[in-house]
Amino acid sequence: MERITFERIPKGMVESLMKTESYIKETSLEFGLLELIRLRVSQINKCAYCIDMHYKELKQSGETELRLSTLSVWQETPFFTEKEKATLLFAESLTIINQSEITDSMYKSLTSFYDDETICNLILIVAQINSWNRIVRTLKFIPGNYIVQ
């Protein structure tokens, strides 16, 4: 059972989160990669509601079942591009930063694909989905009801 419904979250808090979402939507990062980041971070954080949401978003956008079902083991598969691998490794490391350092080699691999602005935006994207995961898990939002708009 939900502890606090989405509608009962303070208006200013939701507006701030949605303003960040609007900013993220305007970045140069392609939708599919953005959603892969969100889904992978949500898997790490065991956020069922967000996993349901981002899985459905990816499915609706044409992502393959094979890539969706192997995202949690992406390092062991040939299904992801070098850019996606560098991005996912960064997102995972940033999510579990207390256990995993952002190494110079990891950062250098990002610079092969992204400029400084995009790397800064990646940091924000990972921080934002981590925030959503923590809010949603704490408030116990019920997974399964998300409908792609």
TrEMBL record:
Residues 24-92 form the Carboxymuconolactone decarboxylase-like domain. This is Carboxymuconolactone decarboxylase family protein. Gene3D superfamilies: AhpD-like (1.20.1290.10). Pfam families: CMD (PF02627). InterPro entries: AhpD-like (IPR029032), AhpD_core (IPR004675), CMD-like (IPR003779). The lineage of its organism: Bacteria, Pseudomonadati, Bacteroidota, Flavobacteriia, Flavobacteriales. It comes from Flavobacterium jumunjinense.
